[in-house]
Write a sequence for this structure.
């Protein structure tokens, strides 16, 4: 996949903290930022999934166990 450059403005203290973190762990800054962006996108996807499944109907555990032929004495 081709790499492209993006430019953002961040607080200087945040930039310095990220640079220190990367240097102390031997991580390349661009890799750290790319992973952070991917993590955030995944979190946002998870939030959307949660919103969607909150409205799905639920069933009592007893009914599910009965349908599966398992002991429903839970």
């Amino acid at each position: 996949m081709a790499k492209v450059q993006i430019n953002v403005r961040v607080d200087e203290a945040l930039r310095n903290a990220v640079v220190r973190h990367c240097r102390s762990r031997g991580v390349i800054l661009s890799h750290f930022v790319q992973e952070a962006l991917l993590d955030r996108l995944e979190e946002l996807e998870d939030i959307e999934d949660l919103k969607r499944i909150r409205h799905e109907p639920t069933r009592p555990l007893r009914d599910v166990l009965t349908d599966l032929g398992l002991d429903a004495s839970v």
